[in-house]
Known about the structure:
single chain; alpha+beta; six-stranded mixed beta sheet; three-stranded antiparallel beta sheet; 13 strands; 12% strand
Amino acid sequence: MIEFLGGHSLDEATCYYIGRCWDTIRPGFNMRKPGDLDVFLENEWDVARSLWDRDWLMVDLDVEYTNFEFPAEPFLDYQRTFALQQPVLHAIQRVLSSVGIQPLHSVSGRGHHFVWKVHRTSEAFQQLAGIGRLSPALERRYTARHPPADESVGLQLGKAFSGLGLVMEYVAYRVLSESQPDCPIPVFPEAVDFGPQERGREMISLDISEYADPLHTRGVRIPFSVYIKPWQHPEMLTPEIQGKVPLMVMVPSNGLDTHEVAAIMRNLGKAAEWASHTSCLIPDCSHGMEALASLYLRSDARRFHDWFYSVEPEPPEEWPLTYDRASMMDVPPYIKYILENPNDSLLKPGPVRQLVAFLLEQGWHPRHIAGLIRSKYERDHGWFNQWYIYDAGMRADFHARVLAGMIKMGYDHQADIPAAVHV
Length: 423
């Protein structure tokens, strides 16, 4: 576990903080320095490390099975859950290995995690920083000081993280296009409910959502941390199911077959033995990342991103005269409901996908769709302090960009608009 924090000892760890896996989304609360790792282990807490790192740009790509109707399905039939993900796993491995990226691959309760890093002195880092785009609001966040180290992220690292997010969207599009024909259930870059499948409303998410928020707010689960997500979400486990789900830990694959690793993950004794002769070092893939970024720069995803950013959204002072006056005439009831009930409709990828698809069909530019979403995020809809911690503009851009990109480039064939539109 110490290796995953970025050093050979806790004193040498390069991550800025560790925290509970569900608490790292609320920076400033229950953040601890890496030296406090024993506190988490003694209390049998799950633990994540910050993506924010002193020496490296951290890269994370997750794959998760989601069942909106039967949330406990992946824990009750894990063999099927991981078998469904095999086409996605193989596509990720092909895409990454083609440019020389060999990530640390781990398995947890619902899927796979791929982590690697890029040195901040590398050509790849400079390339990603050149790709990245920061709004004035994000620039202010990245120059401000943040807990627990009371340091700033800095503009160059912030730009590189932004550029990384755009490149990872390209990766997600490639993985989806290669894996979906062989996958019996929907694969999508966000957790969208596509309706009934073989066993309820199930799908596989290529989770790149960490790139929707500022770098210092996101973390990644540490291998050999306990996996207690089912018990943190009561809707996942009914009383009659609880006794059928074992305590799990996330474990690195170290070359083993997925089903072998999944069995280790669900057995604490086997996991402890596995920990004694496997490594959690995060590989330096700076050279491979340079090659991947170069492919992105020649891709349709890059051309779409350039088009997306070719338009500026309306500034907040203009919202009363622009987004607030968007016509509700002839708007379907479900779109009207989303706009009138943004909390929590606009926090869910499914309703956002519906909104993006409808507004694209009406001729809206996706950057203005993002502007409309941001105007809802930044109004008083009971968000509490959410948009003081996260960045409303960054989140709105992410959802509009990813979902519009899926439609415009012809990957989202289930949207209620033409599948491929020239941009």
